Each structure stands twice: as structure tokens, then as C-alpha cells.
Amino acid sequence: MRQTSNRISSFFMPSVLYALGAAAIICFPVLLRVQAIRVYVKPAFATTTAQEQAAISGLLQTFSNQSGISVSIDYAQAATAGEYLADLSSRVNGNESIYDVYMIKQSWGSSFPSAFADLFKVAPEINWQNQLSLMRSELTSLDLAGSALIAVPYWADFGGLFFRKDILTKYNIKAPALWADIQSACETIRSNEPDLYCFATAFSDQELIDSAAEWLASATNTPLIASGGVFNFQDPGFASILTVIRNWTQSGVISKDVLGLTEPQVYQLWIQGKVVFFQSRVSQFFQTLQSQQLTKDNFAILKIPGLSGTLTASTVGGFHLAVNSKSKDQNSAAKVVQFMTSFDFQRNRTSAVGVLPSYTALYSDSAL
User: Fold this and answer.
1) How far is Cα 115 from Cα 138, in angstroms, rounded to an integer?
2) Per-residue pLDDT tens for 353-367?
3) pTM score, two decimals?
4) What count of other Cβ atoms lies within 10 Å of the Cβ of residue 310?
5) Which candidate, 227, 234, 290, places its Cα nearest to that of 48?
6) Burial of 183 (0-12, 13-18, 19+ CB in 10 A)
7) Phi, psi of 359 (to 5 degrees)
């Protein structure tokens, strides 16, 4: 019996070892194809990280299963765009290679000329031009640095003026079309409800730059920066609108209490019902509704007023995805960028957290 057992073992063992060896040969290349790409982003809003993760986790898993590229996303702790820029600068300038993909603001690409890879070169097999042609041109224009593509729009944003329509209705005031209309409205409202902040915006970091750009552009048709990079400060419209804002800080239209507050702090005042006119980003509309402290019945959003006539302005905002030029696998990172900026990915994310998409067709999607 012992001899029979030995004969059985001697017969099966080579077969088992051969099978195991074959399995190892088959599995090993599969394991090699799995690439790990790390992405570093700022959450759309301070309160939406969990919603964002839930909306995209299934999509990322499907992408990983199909492509063999695993994706991990780390969310920055920065509360504002300015804080995130400081965080990003320290990472990029410190030659960090931990992350393969970074989320950047549209205007930041030129600040780090060698930090991000040319997507045309690192992933020439991807039809980037076709993807960009489906997006809003004002978003894609700054992603091109000469003949190089350094980023792709992840989500969009635009400037707007929120206002308390219930308060304006209460005092029979029309929605403002001019900056002078806001001043007139504030004179009436403040005389009756002095505890309200009449006009507020974030007077710090990136948000102040955006607001100031909108003030200046709403004052004249003359571009602030002419060809050759020359500033057109001689246009009287620029001086006029800055005088208006200065006078508002002195008269109380803009309370000294809000000067220096960050965007999240001013936003809290807004959703608490303490602000009448709030200059901010259109994406805050969804967040305001989510707060359940203000409803569609008592607030609305308008285009930025003008100094005169039909003038208006709105800065283009939002964030874009770029491949770290120090990534060890730039091709796989570029494929992640392509996927995370795809139509279906953006549609899911827009539905979950209310950020504006970069695809033109999604603005007419009745389900969003």
C-alpha cells in the first residue's frame, strides 16, 4: 500500500508543479500590467468629500478592471483655492514624485512651466483634440501652452451675483443690473434692517483676485491688459469702479466685519441669511440649496452688474487635471486624466456635488 501511495505521489507531483508553474507564468504578466496612479485634488467643497468619493468610486473600479490601472485619490485639506495653491507649490517646487496627477486651477499652469507633462507627447494615442472640442472653449484655451497640452478641464465655474430676492421683494426693489442699483438698494435695506450685511465677497486669496477682475471688466470694454502685456490703467472706468468699492467700505455697504474673511467664512454668513448681495461662484448655488437654510423661494443668482449700460463680467474658474512631469508612468497617468475628465465621469460628479461640468452638452441635460 505504501508503494502504491508513492507511485501515485510520484505520478501527480510533477503534474501539480507543472500546473502551478504554468499558473505563475500566466498570472505574472497580468500582475505586471497593473499600474498604481496617485491623484491629488482639492475637494469641490469642504463638506462634499464623502459625496464625491461615493459618486466616483464605482467608476474608478470599472476603469481599473478594464485598463489594469489602479487609481487612488488623496484629498487636500485646504479650505480655499489660495491654501491649495500654497500646498501645491510646495509639492511641485519640492520635486515631489509621490503623485502622478495634480488638480490645478486654469491660470496656474503658466506658474509652473516645467511641472506638468505635455499630454500630446506622453499619450499620443489619445485623441485629445476630440475630447477638448466637446468642452467649453473658454475652459480649454489656457490649457494649451504653445503647442503643448498641459491639462484638461475637470470642472468649471463662473462668477455670479447671489441675492436675497425675498428681501428685495419686501422693499419693492428690482434685481440690480448696475452697481449703482446695489448701492440704492442697500440704502433702503440698511435703514430698515441694519443687522444685515448688504454686500459681501471674499476679500482674500484667489477669490479677491477673481472679484477684482470682475469689477474691472464690468466697468469698461477696454481690456485691463493690452497686447504686449501693457496695463490699461489710464481708462477712467477702472478708476471709477475701484472708487465705488472703496466708498462702499467707508459707507457700510461693505461692512468692515467682512473685510479679510475667507470665502468659506463669507459663504457661512450667506447661508445663515445675513447677507443680501453675495458675489461668488455659480457652483455655490447647489451648495446653498444643500444647506437647507435658504431655498429657491428666497434667493436667486444674476450675472455680475455693470458700471453702466449693458456691461457685465464673469471670471472663468474651476479646476483642471495635469500629469506630474516627475511621474514614473506618465502614459498611465495621462489615461487616468482622460478618464476622470470624460463625459460620463463629469456627469456623475456634477450630479453628486453640483460642480459645473466642462462639457457643453451637459448644460442642457435635463437630469442635472
Assistant:
1) 23
2) 889 999 999 999 888
3) 0.83
4) 7
5) 290
6) middle
7) -85, 130
